[in-house]
Structure prediction request, 228 residues.
Amino acid sequence: AQKITQTQPGMFVQEKEAVTLDCTYDTSDPSYGLFWYKQPSSGEMIFLIYQGSYDQQNATEGRYSLNFQKARKSANLVISASQLGDSAMYFCAMREASGSARQLTFGSGTQLTVLP
Amino acid sequence: DSGVTQTPKHLITATGQRVTLRCSPRSGDLSVYWYQQSLDQGLQFLIQYYNGEERAKGNILERFSAQQFPDLHSELNLSSLELGDSALYFCASSEGQQETQYFGPGTRLLVL
Prediction:
C-alpha cells in the first residue's frame, strides 16, 4: 500500500488566491513526522514545513500552513496569497520513528501552476 | 541555499561505466541520505549514513555503494551503469536522525 498519497497530479490557482494541496498518509507508527518540499523547475528540493504527529497545533511558516487531521490521516498544504514563484512541484513526505531508519517516504507530487 | 553541496551538477556517461557522486553535508550535520528521483520510480530512498556508519538501506542496487568519510562528506558510487540509472540523485543531510532533512541541488546523471 502507498504510504503517501497525493491525488492531484496537477493544480491551477489564480495569483493572490489560496490553494490546498492534498496529502494522505498511511502508518501504524504512533510517532511520525510529515513534511512538504517544493521542487521548482530548476530541480532543487526546498523544505517548506514540518508537522509532528504529537504536535497539538497545525504548523505554519509564513504563507504556508499544514492542515493536519490525524484521524483522517491527512496533512494538506495550504498556500495563501499565491505568487507566480510558487509554480513548482510539491511533495509530501513522511518519516516514521520506529526502527533505525529515518528516511523520508515521498508521495508522487502535485504540479502547481499559478496563473497571472 | 540549503548548505548541502553536491558535485558534479551534471554527468553524462556511457553504459557499463562507473561514476562517483559527492556530497558535503551542512556544517554540523551528522546524517547523510541519498535519494534517487526518476520519472518512473519517483523519489526513492537509497541509503543513510550517520557519523560514518551505515544506518539504513532502501532500494539501492547491488551495483551501487556509498560511504561517509571522517570529515562527514559522502560519496555514492554507481557502477556497471545502465540506461535506467539515468536520474536525479539527491543528497540530504540532517543534524541527527530526527531533524529536518535539507537537500542538495542534486546531480543529474544521464547514461547513454
Summary: The CA atoms of residues 15 and 81 of chain B lie 5 Å apart. The interface with chain A takes residues 2, 31, 33, 35, 42-45, 48, 55-56, 58, 88, 90, 92, 94, 97-98, 100-106, 108 of chain B (CB under 8 Å). The two ends of chain B are 31 Å apart (CA to CA).
